[in-house]
Structure formats: C-alpha cells, structure tokens
C-alpha cells in the first residue's frame, strides 16, 4: 500500500527517539540494541495508523489507552482548536472562557442530576480533585474522611490516585501512600470463588458482591467513610462489567450510610459503553463523576470533575469563612483547546449517531469473541459492554488457572506483527494479567471488527 505521508530523515527521528524519549510503561533495555527500534506512529485516519516504516495498523484500542473515541484525522476538531487558540488560548481557571462555558452547559445536559464542572487536564488530576473535595468536606463537616476504592480498579498515576489503586503491580515501589484509602473487593463473577461467593450467581451474586462494600463500611465505621470511588466497568483490571443487581445495591448502601458516590468515567465516559456514561447503563445517580480520555478523543488535553449542586453548595454555604471554597487549581485546566475540542467531539458523536453504532458493533464484537471461545480452549470467559470488551485467557478451563502473562503478551505481539493493535492487562494485578482488551473507536465498522477478531484467531492458533 502506498504510504500516505512523507517523513524527512526517518532514521534520524528513530535515533533521536532512542536517545532522548522516555516512553510510558516501557522497559527501554531492548532499545539499547540498535536492531530493535522504538515504534513511531506518524499518521492516522479512522481506525488506521501508519508507523514511520510505512506499515499499516488497525487500532483496536483507540490510541492504546481508550482515548481516540471518534477516530483519527478529524480535521474539524483540529480546526476548532486552532481557531480558538488564535482567538484566546489560555487564562487561569479562576476566570471563565467561551468554550469552557459552552461545553460545561452541553455536558451537564447529558448528565441529569449533576450541575458543576471543574476543568483539569488528565484523568489522574480529575480524580485528585474529587479526593480533595471529599477531604475538604470532611474537615468542614465532620470526620468522614476515608475513601473506599475497589480491588482491580485504577484511578490514576499520582501518589494520591495510586493510594486508591486496586492494581498492586501498578502501585509497587511507589509507596508509602496517603492514609485514609481503604480497599473493597472486586465484583468479577468469573472469579467469584476468590470472594467466598462461589455458591451464588446472577443477581444473587451481584447483591452479595455489593454487600461486601457494606461490610467494609461497617468495619471502618460509617462515621469515618466519606466516599466510594468505583469505575462503572473495571477497565485495566480485566474489563469487568458489574453483575446484575450490583449497582442498585451499591447506591442503596451509599445512601444509607451517607457516603458520596464517586464514579470514575475516565475510560467509560463519552460513549464507550453505548451510553454517554457507563453509570447511565445502570440507573445510578452519582454525587461526583470524573472523566478524561474520550472527552476530546485525544485532540487536546482535558478532564472534568463534575458534581451535584449539593456537593458544590458545601463550598459556599458560609461566605464569611475565608477557607470555605475549593482552594484548588489546574494550570492547564485554563487552556481553551480542551473544551473547544470537546465541543466538536460531542457534536460528531451526535451527528453520526455513534452511540447506536456502538450498540450494533458491540453485538458483533461479542458474537465474534464467543465464536473464538468455542474454537479456542484458552479463552475462559468473554465479557464487556459497548465497544469495551475482554477475553480472559486460561491455561485450564476447568480449574480457571490464568494463562501466564508472557503467553498473553505473545498473543498481543503476534497481532501487532499482523498489523492489528490489541491490548491486554499487564503488570497490574498479580497472577491475573491474562485478559485481552478490545476497545476500537466508536466509528468501527463490521469489517474492522472482523479484521480485529480474525487477527486474534490467528494469533491464538499460532501462539497457543
């Protein structure tokens, strides 16, 4: 295929990268051998990517980290960002901006029951804001300072967010962590024996899994627990949709014990599950919602911490108190590129009816994965919601012994060699990094879904 771009001095770019760029989540030792080059992506269009050698790839993970929801090459988003930056690029968030006001209004219309948007520039930062809100309320209103988080959930890369991190290998070597964060059990029905709930299934299991959260609240003391932070669907911890009955019971527990419900939509938000937000699939009414990634599909940095009026009003109920406001700032939360891009991103999703496409392509992706499960004994479970699916690989279906991480990564590597990029849990949960992850852009077509799963079929055949 003809390469759709020209790069001056590609060898020089590769060597500059090798010498000076510190890549995320990467062991750089292989790059010391000049026979192994860092991979450099040069151009993208739709779901296709081309690297600096001219090789074409189908991106099955939306930019590697569940971000490019509307696909690559959206000139209208880039144009909107350019026009806005020329007019007014930045002022600290103590003052407002036109796109900031417009996007907040448009976003809130998608989130009944919530009313206020605090801008920042990453998912980690948005979650830090939420944690600080809870802590400041505790200082002003009482002792409810503890924040509960779930095993296998992930909320960000800062020390504060890692303190609320349920992925032990992501946390390793970064402690000591902030006090006052307490873990609750995961809700993966496929691994229900780990929870002592092996005798239950369906809604009975979901309610019982939620009640494990209640047990933690009672153990810690309801007068000390201020918030519960959960992903609507656990993402990097294994793509874990909650079981039936789980979310309604979680909300009941939070209301009973006066615990703020903070839902981390950094991955699931803005269409990934087939609704604007994952929590809306379950009829939940949260107090705080955080989001990033798909908010602008990676065309600009933006994240949001969104709250109810009830939470917002706690920070202005006593104007005579000089400390009674949220004393926080995000420098680049004041950059106008983020909301300008987010406005166009949301318009594209609406105009192209991409939520409906997610529902249709979700059915195709799950059907394809189930057929692969019938063919390959190494697939122990398939699960997901919307264009966010996982296939858990096992060494033995009967015992459900997880497949070794090295073999799982070999499947990913084989797909990459075929020109198809998929994801997998890696270096996250000890002994449980065995789930292949699929999250193509919301614009994916049936042919692209088939291309994706056909590559997995070939990889499983060759590797296992």
Characterization of this structure:
The protein has a seven-stranded mixed beta sheet with strand order 4-10-9-8-7-5-6, with helices on both faces. Strands 11, 12, 13, 15 and 16 form a five-stranded antiparallel beta sheet that branches. A four-stranded mixed beta sheet has the order 1-2-3-14. It has two domains: 39-68 and 353-463, Aspartate Aminotransferase, domain 1 (Alpha-Beta Complex), CATH 3.90.1150.10; 76-351, Type I PLP-dependent aspartate aminotransferase-like (Major domain) (Aspartate Aminotransferase, domain 2), CATH 3.40.640. The longest helix has 22 residues, at 354-375. Helices cover 37% and strands 15% of the residues. It is an alpha/beta fold.
